[in-house]
Amino acid sequence: MKHLLNSIGLTALVVIASCSNNGEPEFPVFMQPSAIATADENGNNQTFEYDEYGRIVAWTLKSNSTHDVTACTAHYSYPNDKTILVKSEEFLNGHDRIFEETIWLINGRAAKSEGTFTSSVNGLTELQKTYRLEFEYDSSNHLTIVRHAEVVGIGDDLNDVVWNKPWIWENYLIWEDGNLKEFQDFQGNNTITKTTKYDYSIYAIEYPVIIPMVINNAHHAPLFMQGVFGLNSVNLVKTAEIFDSNDNMNLSRQYTYEFEQTGITGFAETTCCNAVYSKPVTYEVTWTEKFNCLLRKE
């Protein structure tokens, strides 16, 4: 599922308005994406749903392709202000994976999580694992390290002893001038397996639609958008280049954007592989209001 989001671009928009009239203090009204849509057979369609506080509660992604169907559906709940519960299902190339994860927050930011996933093919279970994630940040509130640990088995099949020798690795994020410049993905190995390098336009953003896939599951992306994993990049991504372990570039993606007075209404993604450029896949972005009136005193 690590490649599920690679064909989605990045953009952002913020609009300021008033939460109420009657002479009361004004509060900002931010815009969040409600859908990212395309008719292109090589594209993906996304939908976003939020609760009354503007927190993500449901997210879906589904490819338009009739040959390589990919999909993800995720639901989020918030039992208290220190915990996020996630249930998601990913379908990719005939493999169906079910995730359940608990994310623990400190001051609204993810500190660690624990989850399980079951992978099956044609209804037959092929693998069950339990994973733990730990997140480290720099002084600027940027995520810099994602520490992974996995063991085979879930629930009653596990005991504390299995965590004495888990499968562990770390991935690293390198920031420059407020932007994510490089993501080093070890993919469970002792050395870097894949590196993604980013270049940015001069245009600043407030709220990203889709961010780079830098954790292990697709369902983390909407939470990253909302700042659960620290600050996002301050500028619009212009290019993303993927390199293998020998520093050979395997793939490059280029982004262009459509603007109106209120902000960005769409974007196009062009892929380059072996010096061959694809036809641009164009996306339309629609928005919904997020009222930030939580500090109002009745």
What does this 3D model show about the protein?
By secondary structure, this protein is an all-beta fold. It has one helix and 17 strands. A 16-stranded antiparallel beta barrel has the order 1-2-3-4-5-6-7-8-9-10-11-12-13-14-15-17. The protein is globular.
Computed Rg: 20 Å
Helix-strand category = mainly beta
Strand fraction: over 45%
| Unreliable spans | 1-27, 294-298
- Please summarize the sheet with the most strands: 16 strands, antiparallel, barrel
Individual helix count: 1
The SSE order reads EEEEEEEEEEEEHEEEEE
Task: Draw up the topology in text.
Layout: E1 29-37, E2 44-50, E3 56-63, E4 70-80, E5 83-92, E6 95-106, E7 109-121, E8 124-137, E9 143-152, E10 167-176, E11 179-185, E12 194-204, H1 220-225, E13 235-243, E14 249-260, E15 263-273, E16 276-277, E17 281-291
Antiparallel strand pairs: 1-2, 1-17, 2-3, 3-4, 4-5, 5-6, 6-7, 7-8, 8-9, 9-10, 10-11, 11-12, 12-13, 13-14, 14-15, 15-16, 15-17
